[in-house]
């Protein structure tokens, strides 16, 4: 549905380093980059734009699609290693639906980042 979506960050180099490390297990990497901004994504999918061109919005929630529960666990570990704060360990969230497996971290600017897999355990 989206081509891209974006928001400003307070420290572009720190946000770039955090997002690259946290999202690497999901196969998400830089698709385009310029002075003070970058786009993250996967081939043939929408992109997440972030940059340092204005005020940082209040905390936003961004959920990234994972293809497996193992990717969710790897995302959570990578995000914590990159300096994120735990906001929900990997696990089932059956109040959303029976196979909703997600993990949540708070990033450098207070944004709630999630990886989620909707598939049943392999």
UniProtKB/TrEMBL annotation:
Q: What is this protein called?
A: VOC family protein
> Entry's InterPro entries?
Glyas_Bleomycin-R_OHBP_Dase, Glyas_Fos-R_dOase_dom, VOC_core
VOC domain mapped to chain residues: 1-118
A Pfam family annotated for this UniProt entry: Glyoxalase
According to its UniProt entry, this protein's organism is Pelomonas cellulosilytica
Taxonomically, the superkingdom here is Bacteria
| Endpoints of the signal sequence | none
């Amino acid at each position: 549905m989206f081509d891209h979506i974006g928001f400003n960050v307070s420290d572009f180099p720190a946000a770039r380093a955090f997002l690259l490390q946290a999202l690497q297990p999901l196969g998400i990497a830089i698709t385009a980059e310029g002075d003070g901004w970058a786009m993250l994504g996967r081939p043939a999918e929408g992109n997440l734009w972030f940059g340092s061109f204005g005020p940082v919005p209040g905390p936003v929630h961004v959920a990234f699609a994972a293809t497996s529960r193992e990717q969710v666990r790897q995302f959570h570990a990578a995000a914590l290693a990159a300096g994120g704060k735990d906001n929900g360990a990997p696990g089932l969230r059956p109040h959303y639906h029976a196979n909703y497996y997600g993990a949540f971290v708070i990033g450098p600017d207070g944004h709630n980042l999630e990886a989620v897999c909707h598939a049943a355990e392999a």
